[in-house]
Amino acid sequence: MPNTSEQFYEKCRAIHDLQEVQQLLEWDMQVMMPRKGVDQRGNHQAALATAIHEKVTEPGLGGLIEELAARQDLGIGLAADVREAKRARDRAVKVPARLVAERAQVCALAQVAWEEGKKNNDFAAFRPHLEAVLNIVREMARAIGGDQNPYDALLDEYEPGMTEGALTATFSDLRDRLVPLLDKIKGARRRPSQDLVKRPYSLAAQEAFSRRVMADMGFDTEAGRMDVSAHPFTNGTFRDVRITTRYQETFLNMALFGTMHEAGHALYEQGLDPERYRDPAGQYCSLGIHESQSRFWENMIGRSRPFWRRYFPQLKAAFPGVLDGVAEEEFYGAVNVVEPSLIRVEADEVTYNLHIILRFELESALLAGKLEAADLPAAWNEKMRSFLGIVPPDDREGVLQDVHWSVGLIGYFPTYALGNLYSAQFARAMRRDMPDLDERVAAGKLGDVKAWLNANIHVHGRRYLPQDLCAKVTGEPLSADSALEYLNAKFGEIYGF
Length: 497
Ligand code: ZN
Hints:
This protein has helices at about 5-30, 40-55, 60-70, 75-95, 95-120, 125-145, 150-160, 165-185, 205-215, 250-270, 285-300, 305-320, 330-335, 350-365, 375-390, 415-435, 435-440, 445-455, 465-475, 480-495; strands at about 225-230, 235, 240-245. With about 500 residues, it is mainly α.
């Protein structure tokens, strides 16, 4: 008879394996599946979701978790696994099946209504669906968190241990210091132009170049692959990680930085502890930490001067005639242009966080009932004006641009900005360990960067809560300081103030 912890691991790993299959089906649906297969795939996914839910909620696992949780002699690894298994199970057990089904239905309808509403620039048609989503999400939060702040109950799924209060404090600080930085950039005399990245870049050469950078980063192509999809994403784990990208002939940034972003996510998954990747605490720490890895590679490396010292000559050679006579410095400016814009996914490093803070402030007000859905477009536009100094001409380019709220993702947006904050903190810590980081990147030693991330972040999986991992790696709690210091120094130099 296997002992308690062996039984516990056997059950947890069986759940994990099914979740991997779930991801594979999802990847297939977005990349490979013929269009007419959608109904069949819906059946597969429902069957799998039911099987997983049964395994997570069955009393046997609950008993094992309780028995282990009561013991004082668990090592740090087992204790973390029990904590994480309990978190996942508690959430699953507390939400009645009726609510799960209702939520799926409400969100499916809301997503269709959002697509239509966006196409027709008709927020009023989407509004009743948004209200229904908010109601069901509030009910879920109550079921999970009881008297707990509803936003915290939702947030805990994406960023364990994080609270609305902590986010409010950090994000307000970030916002209050980003807006003046943006004003300085707007008023700067020196103005790099994006024209250089908007020339015709052949698609085949873009793919080859992106793949070369991805290989230099250390992406293991025998443990992962890259394909094309409408919206880039990363899926899968450990030795089967799938990333996607997309290409645009007249905009180099989309494929190149998109690939670096997703490859950053992929390196995290490929870097998990081989002995533990199927265990509850062996998986990625949180969405914020995941995003820190993608943003690290995309921005801290991909948009850095040392990176382009290395790659600009290669880029010129890969696209003959496109960049003749262009200086490295000019090109570095072109990939770092800051310009307030309407669309989050196209935002630069400085304004991106403001797009997220705007969404955080609005969704927390909506959830708390302090803002009515009917007043959302006006509130959105007012915040755009005050944060970025621009107002969307219509809701399509404003409140209707993102899918998240329609599918019930409340508490998810903050993880994007957290990823930026963590990435800046990790960069500072990396520089402390490797004072010659710039020289190494300029010499093409991206493997050194990967090795540091592997050892300091990836291998720990979910052993520590995100904030504890941050403190352990950087010696400091989560804060906006590193990000602001980084942004002020970088853009002060580019824009000359
Ligand atoms: Zn990402």
